[in-house]
Write a structure and sequence with these properties.
This protein has a domain of about 60 residues. The protein is an all-alpha fold and about 140 residues long. The chain is built from 4 helices and no strands.
């Protein structure tokens, strides 16, 4: 039961590559710098407040921000102003939809005119033909 021999014999002496040793020492220095950074983060000042106090402070800060935002806007919006704003938005959306529909209809009509000129069947006839060719299981 001899097992594997030791690397350096019984004394523990073995040759070390000096270049590799310098490289390892440099990497160890980098690791020490990182660990010192971790220590700096860990030594951060402890907050002695309770959770209730922390949450109360956050709520007060949020309320202050909301008040500041309201002051910038010039106060709350009245019902009439809101109705007028929403009507304008609705009118703009309707106008955009109508323009989109008109564009699609124009494209459809131009394609239909091309198909009619080329004696191609229209979409309805194509669907009707597909239904006729379909076999029920």
């Amino acid at each position: 039961m001899g097992g594997l021999p030791s690397l350096g014999g019984r004394q523990g002496n073995f040759e070390i590559d000096p270049d590799y040793y310098k490289k390892c020492q440099a990497e160890l220095g980098k690791l020490n710098e990182i660990s010192s950074f971790d220590e700096a983060v860990k030594t951060k000042e402890e907050d002695g407040r309770t959770m209730l106090e922390v949450m109360r402070d956050k709520r007060l800060a949020a309320e202050k921000e909301i008040e500041a935002a309201k002051q910038k806007q010039g106060g709350p919006e009245t019902v009439e102003d809101r109705m007028a704003r929403l009507r304008k938005q609705r009118d703009i959306l309707k106008q955009q939809q109508n323009e989109k529909r008109a564009k699609e209809l124009e494209e459809f009509n131009s394609k239909m005119a091309e198909n009619t000129a080329a004696n191609k069947p229209n979409l309805f006839d194509e669907f009707k033909q597909m239904d006729a060719n379909k076999k029920d299981p």
